[in-house]
Specification:
The chain folds into two domains: about 40 residues, no CATH class; about 60 residues, Cysteine Rich Protein, CATH 2.10.110.10. By secondary structure, the chain is mainly beta. It is built from two helices and seven strands. About 10% of the residues lie in helices and about 30% in strands. The strands form three sheets. Strands 1-2-3 form a three-stranded antiparallel beta sheet, with no helix packed on it. Strands 4-5 form a two-stranded antiparallel ribbon. Keywords: LIM domain, Metal-binding, Zinc. It holds the Pfam family LIM. GO terms for molecular function: metal ion binding.
Length: about 130
């Protein structure tokens, strides 16, 4: 296995498509120098999908709560749309067939059957599991 000691950016340029390219020198423990080039195209970056709305989440809007990646704007009460903060809300696992749903202090103690009626009225659809 070659141990990487240093990575030097040697040159930067725009290719004919307008994408930034870089040429780098990789200096290994044995002193060998290897040249390589790579693209820094934003099209190459794979953004995770939001667990709530299923759209891509760019890095600047990424929010991880309960080990789920979502948009900051998707972290709201499923009933009243109030913006939530970590530690002041609850994730309802009993309604997981609708995707992850968080509830504010006011609505977290609402009985599950009533919660389901309210979210169906708001237009939430079953994403997976048994459809009623």
């Amino acid at each position: 296995m070659i141990k990487l000691i240093e990575l030097l950016v040697d040159k930067t340029w725009l290719d004919p498509m307008g994408e930034e390219q870089k040429c780098v020198q990789l200096i290994t423990a044995g002193g060998a120098v290897k040249m390589s080039s790579f693209s820094l195209s934003s099209r190459d970056i794979k953004h995770p999908k939001c667990e709530r709305c299923e759209k891509e989440v760019p890095f600047e809007d990424k929010f991880v709560v309960d080990r789920l990646t979502i948009h900051k704007s998707c972290f709201k009460c499923a009933i009243c749309d109030k913006a939530l903060s970590v530690g002041a809300c609850s994730l309802e696992r009993g309604l997981s067939r609708y995707g992850p749903l968080w509830f504010c202090w006011e609505h977290m103690m609402t009985p599950p059957g009533e919660k389901e009626q309210l979210i169906v009225q708001k237009g939430y659809k079953i994403k997976f599991g048994n459809k009623k």
